[in-house]
Amino acid sequence: MGSRKEKIILVTGGTGLVGQAIKTIVEEERKLGSQEVQNETWIFCGSSNIDLRKKDETDAFFEKEKPTHVIHLAAMVGGLFHNMAHNLDFFRDNMSINDNVLHASFKYKVKKVVSCLSTCIFPDKITYPIDETMVHNGPPHTSNYGYSYAKRMIDVLNRGYHDQHGCMFTSVIPCNIFGPNDNFSLTSSHVIPALIRRMDDAMTNVSGDKTFSVWGSGAPLRQFIYSLDIAKLFVWTLRHYQSIEPLILSVDEEDEVSISKAAEAIKKAHGFTGEIIYDTSKADGQFKKTASNRKLRSLYQEFSFTPFEQAIQETVTWFKNNRETARL
Fold first, then answer.
1. Of 51, 88, 273, 325, which residue is 20 to 30 A from 241 by alpha carbon distance?
2. Given the residues 108, 128, 145, 147, the one annotated as active site
3. pLDDT digits over 234-255, tens only?
């Protein structure tokens, strides 16, 4: 089957939030009879299929599957406190994963790789809005420097493979992603899945407490992107973006949302009738981390993002329907 298709696309980290969203988008395209997807075979692999920290295992997997294109999402990730305590592990494991995937892509003549970076890799001291030229302008935040520097090195590797071997290895930098198949753990999840999970817990709690506490003032602003939107943009990047320079994948600057607005949207989606209270004894973190999507807009201006409240509603509905199997 693989040999008849033009493209064999391998998605590393394919069982996670973004990988599963890409799978959903590709399946939707198939149902709609899209021409481009007819020529593509998609392979989604997770850590249960392969340990990308091991070079021999990575090479063997590439030799067997023979991908022509790669979307590289796999990474060792963790919550803030886990990161702070294990910066060396995060650096070494992610360096190994990225080096192995890109070298195997070179060795087995992959035509194009799109790797996933993160907005947390940008310098801690920075001017806003953030753009793609600022990645290496200063040290990242001290809390997760291991992960951040390893992610930055993808950009260095991409340039090296391009300069020495002419490879089209590139990267994208998404803002805060949320959606179905997210990590809803109370200890290591991000703000939206954590609020969705905690509010669900509060509503099923028999004590009938009518208040819901959010840490901090609720004032900080964030750019949140729905996983199905980021998935569409990953697929577009793979097919159409022809540069090794990183590309920020973010909602528009005016679509920044305060934590309190996010909490209210989650309350509405859950049908929670109680009151949200803000625990200002807890720290807020950075007030804003605005990223500019001007470059994306110049290349793909017609893209329309899912309205925030609709995306929250779909995510809450998914969580309620899949709570038994979700990552808790």
1. 51
2. 147
3. 999 999 999 999 999 999 999 9
Tokens at residue 190, please? 């991000």
Please give the DSSP secondary-structure letter assigned to residue 298.
H
Q: How far is CA 203 from CA 169, 188, 211, 267, 273, in A?
A: 47, 21, 10, 10, 9
pTM (2 decimals)?
0.93
Q: What is the largest CA-CA distance in the chain?
A: 64
Residue 283: pLDDT band with limits 50, 70, 90:
confident
Question: Which residues, 6 or more positions from 201, have their beta carbon under 8 angstroms from its beta carbon?
Answer: none
- Read out DSSP for 104-144? HHHHTT-SEEEEE--GGGS-SS--SSB-GGGTTSS---GGG
Residues 6+ apart with CB under 8 A from 295: 131, 132, 247, 248
With CA atoms as reference, report the closest residue to 262 among 317, 225, 209, 208.
225
Tell me if residue 204 falls in helix, strand or coil: helix
- CA angle 101–106–111, rounded 5-degree value: 100
Q: Which residue, among 190, 207, 325, 174, has the nearest Cα to 266 in the 3D structure?
A: 190
Main-chain phi, psi angles of 158, to 5 degrees: -55, -45
Q: How far apart are CA 95 and CA 89, in angstroms?
A: 10
